[in-house]
């Protein structure tokens, strides 16, 4: 007859669902490496960067990210780390727990610019750009969104026409992360053959990337407009392995995977800040964490965060097994961004007036998540993707 246990398991306030037990030693090590990097290189400075609306030393930062293998880390060959989807997701969560702008830099570099070249580029494109981008020696950006073409990329106006053996590009792209500092842009344009992608080195005559200022979100991130005014490229600048919107949309799906992990990092930062604050802030002679309404807020935040993390981990395992559908990514992106924003807003109420101070990360994460909610597919678009998958009926134009 077995004896009764001498003690019962205790719930960890920082891991209430016991998710760490589902991670391998390697996955935990990857997470810790990124967490330590952020604690050393980012967190001491990011509030000041955000307040000033700048990301100083971005090239040195990119090289440091490259040294620990975070740029294109889920890609194989060409100097990329070849790590798992779960490893990449955990890295995105830790990066965004520091700041969404940092995770955006890594996502655009690895899951948009590098991924487009890795999947659709020629061997010459890959060997020229990927090793340098993986090392952080070259930065990339991804030009799809336009001033009048966000959720409807089929209506893009940027066009490329053949002129002898060359291509000539004209158009504008908007809200381009890394654009001003990028060494190479992957630009999507209409052609007589359909939508094609082009590898555009910075410095090509007619190409410019003025920085967008006066942002109320993603302030510790470089955002640009891309201007293409008669940009002449050689014939082999086109990505040879894809024609049509399948190209850019598959890249966006790759980036969304990291985004739905990342949003949970912002949520975790706000939850842990509120939890610590609730245990030390005294009102009416008691820590505010001793009051029922505050405990209800904390419990709801912890539960929604754990549910989001479990969903992300499940979908990460599916991605590593080759079973993740685009609709799954829409489910997770919709859930993570929506719940992360609610967690951040609730955390702000626990901190009261202090919640708006940059002494704490909450208002910064809240403002950043307003952009994360919108880019790579708005909640409305992902809702309709899921709705169509459930019903078999399209409602996009109704």
Brief digest:
The protein is of the alpha+beta class and 398 residues long. It has helices spanning 25-42, 46-52, 58-67, 85-98, 100-120, 123-134, 246-280, 292-320, 326-351, 362-374, 379-391, and strands at 140-143, 159-163, 166-177, 184-191, 194-201, 207-208, 223-233, 282-283, 286-287.
Explain what you see:
The chain is α+β, with helices and mostly antiparallel strands and 398 residues long. It folds into 3 domains: 19-134, Orthogonal Bundle (Butyryl-Coa Dehydrogenase, subunit A, domain 1), CATH 1.10.540; 140-243, Butyryl-CoA Dehydrogenase, subunit A, domain 2 (Beta Barrel), CATH 2.40.110.10; 247-391, Butyryl-CoA Dehydrogenase, subunit A, domain 3. The protein is built from 11 helices and 9 strands. The chain has helices spanning 25-42, 46-52, 58-67, 85-98, 100-120, 123-134, 246-280, 292-320, 326-351, 362-374, 379-391; strands at residues 140-143, 159-163, 166-177, 184-191, 194-201, 207-208, 223-233, 282-283, 286-287. Strands 2-3-7-6 form a 4-stranded antiparallel sheet, with helices on one face. The chain has a 3-stranded mixed sheet with strand order 1-4-5. β2 and β3 form a beta hairpin. α5 (100-120) runs antiparallel to α6 and α5 (100-120) runs antiparallel to α7 (246-280). The longest helix is centred in the middle third of the chain and has 35 residues, at 246-280. Residues 141-231 form the Acyl-CoA oxidase/dehydrogenase middle domain. Its EC number is 1.3.8.6. Pfam families: Acyl-CoA_dh_1, Acyl-CoA_dh_M, Acyl-CoA_dh_N. Its cofactor is FAD. It catalyses: glutaryl-CoA + oxidized [electron-transfer flavoprotein] + 2 H(+) = (2E)-butenoyl-CoA + reduced [electron-transfer flavoprotein] + CO2.
């Amino acid at each position: 007859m077995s004896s009764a246990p001498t003690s019962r398991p205790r719930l960890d306030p920082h891991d209430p669902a016991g998710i760490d037990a589902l991670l391998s030693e390697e996955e935990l090590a990857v997470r810790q490496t990124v967490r330590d990097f952020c604690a050393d290189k980012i967190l001491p400075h990011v509030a000041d960067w955000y307040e000033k609306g700048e990301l100083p030393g971005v090239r040195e930062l990119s090289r440091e990210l490259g040294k620990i293998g975070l740029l294109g880390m889920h890609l194989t060959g060409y100097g990329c780390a070849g790590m798992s989807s779960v490893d990449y997701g955990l890295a995105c969560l830790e990066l965004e727990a520091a700041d969404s702008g940092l995770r955006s830099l890594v996502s655009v570099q690895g899951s948009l610019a590098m991924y487009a070249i890795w999947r659709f580029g020629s061997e010459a494109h890959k060997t020229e750009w990927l090793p340098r981008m993986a090392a952080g020696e070259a930065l990339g950006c991804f030009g799809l969104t336009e001033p009048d073409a966000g959720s409807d990329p089929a209506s893009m106006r940027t066009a490329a026409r053949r002129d002898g053996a060359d291509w000539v590009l004209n158009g504008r792209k908007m809200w381009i992360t890394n654009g001003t500092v990028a060494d190479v842009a992957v630009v999507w344009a209409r052609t007589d053959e359909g939508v094609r992608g082009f590898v555009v080195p910075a410095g090509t005559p007619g190409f410019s990337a003025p920085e967008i200022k006066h942002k109320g979100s993603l302030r510790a991130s470089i955002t640009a407009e891309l201007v293409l005014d008669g940009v002449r490229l050689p014939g082999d600048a086109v990505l040879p392995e894809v024609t049509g919107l399948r190209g850019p949309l598959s890249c966006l799906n790759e980036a969304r995977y990291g985004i739905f992990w990342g949003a949970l990092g912002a949520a975790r930062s706000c939850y842990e800040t509120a939890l610590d604050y609730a245990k030390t802030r005294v009102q009416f002679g008691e820590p505010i964490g001793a009051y029922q309404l505050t405990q209800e807020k904390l419990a709801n935040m912890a539960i929604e965060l754990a549910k989001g993390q479990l969903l992300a981990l499940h979908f990460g395992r599916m991605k590593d097994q080759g079973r993740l559908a685009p609709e799954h990514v829409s489910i997770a992106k919709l859930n993570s961004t929506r719940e992360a924003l609610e967690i951040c807003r609730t955390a702000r109420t626990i901190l009261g007036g202090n919640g708006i101070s940059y002494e704490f990360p909450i208002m910064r994460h809240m403002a950043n998540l307003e952009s994360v909610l919108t880019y790579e597919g708005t909640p409305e678009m992902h809702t309709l993707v899921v709705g169509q998958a459930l019903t078999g009926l399209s409602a996009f134009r109704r």
